Amino acid sequence: MPEMRHDPVQRRWVVISPERSMRPNDFKPCREEVDEFDIFAEGNEAHTPPEIIAIREPGTQPNTPGWQVRVVPNKYPAFRVEGDLDRRAEGLFDVMNGIGAHEMVIESPDRAIDFALLDPEIAFKVADIYRVRMTDLMKDKRLRYVLVFRNRGKMAGASISHPHSQIIATSVTPLAVAIELDSARRHYNDKERCLFCDILAQERLARVRIVYETERHIAYAPFASRVPFELCVMPKLHQHDYREISDDDLRDFVHALQNVLQRLKVALDDPPYNFLLHTSPNPESLTPRTSHWTTLRHDWHWHLEILPRLGSMAGFEFGSGFYINSTPPEQAAEILRSVAL
Predict the structure, then answer these.
(1) What distance in Å separates the CA atoms of residue 233 and residue 148, rounded to the nearest whole number?
(2) What is the torsional sign of CA 207, 244, 120, 232?
(3) HSE of 321 in the Cβ direction (CA atoms, 13 Å)?
(4) CA-to-CA distance for 238 and 199, rounded, in angstroms?
(5) How far apart are CA 327 and CA 226, in angstroms?
(6) How far is it, in rounded angstroms, from Cα 118 to Cα 120?
């Protein structure tokens, strides 16, 4: 029988419908076409905006070959850094200028190597670039939030096949993050404990949804997973801000992330996916809301969500706000644990 499960973080109901369940080999992602012209390839630096930062071989110059990881502004940005917020009313409606930043993190000169299979040292440098750019962008007090995300494959929204991730800074806190922040704050006010730490304690007690565990991080299929094979990776010890993690913690996190991405690649035949890094909002922004963010260090817990794109939302999902998940997270975790790497 279908089961409805409540997500205490996003405060939504999810329908787990095992009658609609499919085996992993029944998910058949479309084969991706490779771009005829690879704008992010080494040697094509002149075709992108000038780089913001790059990890380079000694002696090489900016915007030339010789880089390992490169960050450039998005050529067609969703937000622009120049200007004032100018928040204003239009009758009942609120309007403001689209102030923010939109950056592309080119993860390797080689478009054939996905993040899951990057050399661990290069993957660490990519994750460190996230930390560096978050720190720099949050110096701008107009910006409330910095979201790191990755679209893998066209079904997940990638318009360029060369492996890359993106960083978008916004002058408002995204709704999905704001709901999570509010849930965490309410839980802390009620119980004087971190909601995410409580979830981790429950998952480690149950042991049925954990996919992979390292000394410092854990990857599990959430109890109310929105989509088949959804995963969450987070630190075991309470940490509220990705920017503040140590190098040792970052290496351990990258190892856990690559491990579960490899498991998805093997179990689901290299599926398209999105990953989303939810960290602390900018506590130094110009206009934090009254009483918000005052307990961030205690109630918030950064985490990374992985959403394989194995199907699409339809009328019921859009009309109701429910997700229908055909693969129970316990089954997904068991399948992924059994993958031999």
Answers:
(1) 14
(2) positive
(3) 7
(4) 12
(5) 10
(6) 6
Cα–Cα distance between 38 and 41 in angstroms, integer? 5
Burial of 82 per CB tally in 10 Å (0-12, 13-18, 19+): exposed
Q: Contact, 263 vs 336, CB < 8 A?
A: yes
pLDDT of residue 26 exceeding 60, the answer is: no
Q: Which tops the pLDDT comparison, 304 or 20?
A: 304
Provide the pLDDT for residue 111: 87
DSSP letter for 100, please. Answer: E
State how far the Cα of 141 lies from the Cα of 143, in Å rounded to an integer.
5
Integer Cα distance of 257 and 122 in angstroms: 13
**CA atoms of 206 and 212, how far apart (whole Å):** 14
Q: Rounded to two decimals, what is the model's pTM?
A: 0.93
- pLDDT recorded at residue 107: 97
Rounded distance, CA 235 to CA 303, Å? 7
Identify which of 183, 213, 219 has the alpha carbon closest to the alpha carbon of residue 292: 183
Shortest CA distance to 169 belongs to which of 193, 191, 139?
A: 139
Distance from C-alpha of 200 to C-alpha of 194, rounded to nearest angstrom: 10
Label residue 330 exposed, middle or buried (CB < 10 Å: 0-12, 13-18, 19+): middle
- Give the dihedral sign, CA 17/330/302/238: positive
Report how far residue 179's alpha carbon sits from residue 192's, in angstroms, rounded to the nearest whole number.
Answer: 19
Q: What residues pair up with 3 in beta bridges, in sequence order? A: 16
pLDDT tens-digit readout, 196-212: 999 999 999 999 999 99
Which tokens go with 100?
Answer: 């923010």
Whole-angstrom distance, CA of residue 166 vs CA of residue 14? 28
Contact 159, 184 (CB under 8 A): no
Tell me, yes or no, if 164 is annotated catalytic. Answer: yes
Q: Cα(267)–Cα(102) distance, rounded to whole angstroms?
A: 33
CA pseudo-torsion sign 328, 330, 333, 338: negative
Catalytic residue among 102, 162, 164, 187: 164
